[in-house]
Here is the input.
Amino acid sequence: MDFGRNAELASAWQEEIHAAYPRLDMVRSLVDAIVERAARSDAAAPRYSIGGELLRERQTDGVTRMELAAASSPWGE
Here is the structure.
């Protein structure tokens, strides 16, 4: 996944890149799918698993750290 690391290298081409390869809410879509699966049962979301932690963050804060990190990157969500 690209969260914008070294994004300054491609900033001159940002508009062209996004036009050709839109992000399509990639992080939110991925987290939605993981959280949906994790919410099925405790066995599907044990503590410290990615599913369990994303589910816990969504239930507690309404947003995950992964989503916040992506939104704050130079490329945005």
